[in-house]
Sequence to fold (297 residues):
Amino acid sequence: MTGYASVQLTLAADAEGRPGGARRLGLEIRSVNSRFLDLSLRLSDDLRAQEPALRALLTQRLKRGKVELRAFVDTDESAALTEPAPRLLQRLEGVQDAVRAWLPGAAPLTVAEVLRLCAGAGAPAHDWGEALPDLAQKALDDMVAAREREGQRLAAMLQDRLGQLRALARQAAPLVPQLVEQQRQRFMERWREAMQLAEGTVLPEAAQDRALSEATSYAIRIDVAEEITRLESHLDEIERLLKKGGEVGKRLDFLIQELHREANTLGSKSAAMDLTRISVDMKVLIEQMREQVQNIE
Fold:
């Protein structure tokens, strides 16, 4: 399921109150639909050491979805524009001269590069080992809450499709006995016509038994009572799982496959256009459910 959360934490200044110590830790987490859990972490250099802890936190709480977590450390613009100390500028000039002595073709440092290097050298290192997991936990809570709200909407949609499938099953149930009776009458008419053409060369009892046997065989071939019973049983189980909640995505996947199998069998046994239409309508509804069930955790 989809979800998004963004949180930030600002450090006012470093321990000595020097300018340029103000930093902001930002974290974004987003999730889109996927049948499996696919994690992608984009961390700034200061935070790469926290990747194992973040992965463990995500896998503990999430089971499905393509999840992207982005964490970064920003410095205030005022800190970025602080005038570099002469000592740092002298060090950069010495390093640049040493590099260009070995690599004459190397480009000289630009003003922007000098400012960035001096800001990084002047800012004190900070250990985000305690702040980042807490911030990630807060963002994850917000995203899970958003996914739960979407899950409620999905459950309502699935309940609506379940009601439509039950209505179609009720329409299909009385069609089979009617078809069987119509075919029986057709076989008996053919039997009477055969008797008139045979003019006594065939025993009436044997011909009638053959006609009734054909009608019985036909009735067995088109009987879909078992399919409708199993379909209704699967619908009951899906409804029970939706009310129960929890990690039901994989079980719903399996039940949707079973629903599709029963609808296919219903169509293959169809002996009337009405039953074929019901089978097609069922498969359309089941496919709509399948697309959403694959996103449920």
In short: The first strand starts at residue 3 and ends at 11. Confidence is low (pLDDT under 50) at residues 14-20.
